[in-house]
Amino acid sequence: MKIKDFKGKKITIIGLGLHGGGLGTAKFFSQAGAKVLVTDLRSKEELKEPIKKLKGKSIKFVLGQHRSEDFINTDLVIKNPAVSGKSRYLEIAEENNVPIETDISVFFELCPSPIIGITGTKGKSTTASLIAEFLKKKYSEVTLAGNIRISVLRKLNKINKDGLAVLELSSWQLNGLKIHQKSPHFAVITNILPDHLNRYKNMDAYIKDKKEIFKWQKRNDYLILNYDDRTVRGLAQEAKSQVFYYSQDNGIIFDSNNIGLGAVVKGEKIFFGQNKEVCSLDEIKLRGRHNMSNVLAAITVAKLYEVTNKSIVKVLNKFKGLEGRLEFIDTVDGVKYFNDTTATIPEACLASLNSFSIKQNIILIAGGADKNLDFGQLAEMIIKKVKALILLNGTATAKLKKAVDRQKELTGKELQIIGPLDDMKEAVMHAQRQTEVKDVVLLSPACASFGLFKHEFDRGEQFNKAIASLS
Asked: Which of 74, 87, 101, 167 is the most exposed place for a label (fewest CB within 10 A)?
C-alpha cells in the first residue's frame, strides 16, 4: 500500500466525529487525490465545527443518515473507531466485497519507521507522552500520535525511516489491525480494567482486542507489561516477543528466561533491572500511584532505547501531566480544583481519590453516561473520602447514587448528595458552597460524557470555565 494508490479512488469515511480523528482522515485522503464521501448520523449543526475545518476541500457529506449505496459504490470504507463493528452498513460493504480499513490500519501499512504502541484501559495518553518526551532527548525524529484527538494519518508526512512513532492505541483501533496481522515493534500494556461493556459483550472480547497489540509480534520485538496488574501479567505466556515487566512492588518475583525486569520501585528510588539506579521518587511531579505506574512503563521503554538517566530526570522534573488527567486548575479562596474528566470508569475515579490524603475533604463531581460498569468499590471509597457528592445527570448516575446510598446505609455515615444536575457551572457553584479552606473540588466523573456534553474534553473545558468564573 502506498499513498499514490488512493488517487482517484472512491473512499467512504463512516463517522466524522467530534474528536478530530475523522476530520484528519478526511483531509488525508482528500490531499491524496481520493474522491471522499463522509457520512455521519449526526446532523450538520452538530458537526458544524469539523465541517468548517474541511471547507474548501473536495469532500461530499451525507449527514443525519447512512445510505446503503455509499457502502456499495465505493472502493474503500474507512471506519471511525467510535463506529460499532456491528454496523449494518459495514455488513453491506462486506457483502459487496468492499474492503474496510481504519486510519490506524492504513498508518501501519504506510509508516516507514518503527512503531512503539501503548494500550491499556487507563494511562495510555500519559505513558505515550512520557515515552515520546524521553525518546526526544536522544532521537531527533520522534512523532507522538494515535488516540489523541487527531488522526495518525495527519502525522505521516513528518515521519521518516530513521525516526520513531509513538502511538496511543485504543481497543477499537487495535481491532482494525487484525486484517493486516501487524503489531508494533514495542508494545506497552498499562492495565486492563472493565470498560466499554456497552460495546463489548464481555471482558474476554475486550481483552481479545487489547491483545492485538502484541499478537503479531516476532522474536526481535518487545512487550512491556505491568506486573502489578494480574490480567496483564498473565499475557506474557502468550507472547512470541521479548517480555519486560515493570512494577511498584519491591518483591517482584518471576522465574522465566524469556522475561526481563524493567523499571521497578525499591524504597524511595527507581531501578532498571535488579540494581541499575535510574532516579529517586522525588523527581516525579505527577501525583497518584496510577501515575507512578505510567512513569515506570515509560522508563522501561526509555532504558531499552538507551536514554540516559540524566535525560530521564530532566523530563520527569518538567512533566506535570496532561489535560483532563488529574490536572490542577486553580486555587480559589484556599480551595484547590482538579480536572480529571478523562476518568470515565469507576476505577479511574478511585485512583484519583486515592491520590489525595484521607484527611483531605473532597467535594466530588461525578456521574454521566453508562458503560455497563459496576460502582460498588467506588461507592465504598466515596463514603470514606468524600465530603459532598455533586451528581451530573446521565444514564449511569442513578446506578452510582444507588451504590453510594447502599454504603451510607451499611456504614451509617452521612454524605451530602446534590443533584443530578444538567449544568456544569451549576455543579461547580454547588461544590463551592460545600467547601472550606484546604478542601479539594475534584471533577472525576467515573462515567462517559455523552448526553450532557459533546465529549469528555468538552466536559473538562466547561469545568475549567466554571472555575474561571469563580475566581
From this structure: 87
